Amino acid sequence: TDSATTQTFVGDTLPSGVTSLSQIACAGGAACLAIGGGSSGPVVVAGTDSATTQSFVGDTLPSGVTSLSEITCTGTTACLVTGSTSTGPTILAGPVSATTQTFATDSLPPVDFVTGVACFTGGSTATCEAAAANAGGAVVLTDGSVTSGSDNWTSTPVTGPTGMTLANLPISVNSTDLSSSFVACTAGTCGTSIGPLFPFADGYSVGAGDCAAEVANGSALAETKPGASGSQATDVTLPLGLLPIEVTNSSGAPLAGATVTATVADPGTPQNTPCNDGTVYQLPTTGPDGLSALGAMYETYTVTVTAGSTTTTVTVQVTPYASLVETVTTVSGTVTVTVDAAYPLPQPVVIQA
What we know:
The protein is mainly β. 2% of the residues lie in helices and 43% in strands. It contains one helix and 24 strands. Strand 5 and strand 6 form a beta hairpin.
């Protein structure tokens, strides 16, 4: 009961297989819906907005959903759930109902991850906005006519934040007519363009890295004629992995103001070679939530965190298309962690300073 006096809570019945719940949203007395996990994956359960014992039912989700992060409901119009699939972020929409319902996948503009969604009702329509980001920086997704069966999301860049990409990555170019790739510019020397290229007709690819192994893990086709300039040139977005770091103290509280660097340190190649050249990349200073993140080329890094007089190092491997995201908390020493770049927002590597 919604009351300021002492109350006795009662237990509701959940569908079989539900193992955890993380968030609940109630809408206008119509229903309450909760997100969580079960033996077969993410779940959304629905029940009546009631202070008496009741049974929740499981809603049907689209196939391919791997995780759910937030749920919000707007009046009796619709409930929206943010989450992810193996290919990127997703927003699901479903009815505000205490009975079993089917959620549908909304179509989103190109984004790398979605971190939250909020809705409000004005007149006969409901408007929802979601905080998101792509390689260019932060964006706001807006749907001005939310329903449980249709969507109309648009993307608006946010002035100020510039994204988590680096301007000093090494760039290598390859062609199907070449036996190996060549380094177009080394770390810290790349300008805004590369060329002119040797006049092969096509088949070029470009990637972040200065050795074959780095480029092979993340490259993009450059469908442009050699030496093209101006309107004839083609901009290429380099595939990068997201390297997320969270710095905490010994009690697990986030530490703001910690400095974080990532040094290329590939244990599989000799030192002072292109794949193990010791190049240092500066990550943003940790914010109030202890978080720092950066778009990085696929490599193995020594991540160094300095918080006050304490320095901690961790070995982190950024790889594409890994099957799992692992997290680690360490006080000192070296721990190898595979960061899954296929997920839109990997769990951060937690480093205890």
